[in-house]
Amino acid sequence: MNEKIVIVPCSGIGKTYGTVSREAAYEVIEELRPESAQLVPLSMLVLGEENARAAVAASPAITIDGCKLACATKMVQESGGTIAQDFAVLDVFRRNRKLKPQGIAELNEGGQQLAHALAEEVAAVVDKLNGKVETGDEKLRSSAPCF
Ligand code: SF4
Prior knowledge:
Elements: E1 5-9, H1 16-32, E2 37-39, H2 42-46, H3 50-58, E3 61-65, H4 71-78, E4 83-88, H5 89-95, H6 109-129, H7 136-142
Parallel strand pairs: 1-2, 1-3, 3-4
Helix pairs in contact: 1-6
Bound molecules: iron/sulfur cluster.
């Protein structure tokens, strides 16, 4: 199998949206797609750690940022990685306004559900990158005549 898709959540220490970002990333790599996604900590990229840089050089990355400063996205770019999709927690919240996150060390119920909704979106992108989801073109080709 190819290298695992890289997930880079922002560190967002002390910020609710940062916690949502990290919780979503953990759910993807530990529960939803452990076989096809791996987490690369932002702090390791910031430090220029060799394995972290090699991982983002080898696979497309999905970044998750807790605010518009987009630290995860910027750091992957600065590390020479390719970003397949960048998620912003605020955008996911806008799509799920009922799920109002609160808490920092520990998220409230709304925050946990928001992290789960985000994790599902990230997992769908992982599948797409791994070719597990047919694109419109593929559907068209598979229904084309055999001549
Ligand atoms: S993107 Fe925002 S919340 Fe995340 S680490 Fe950067 S400043 Fe903090």
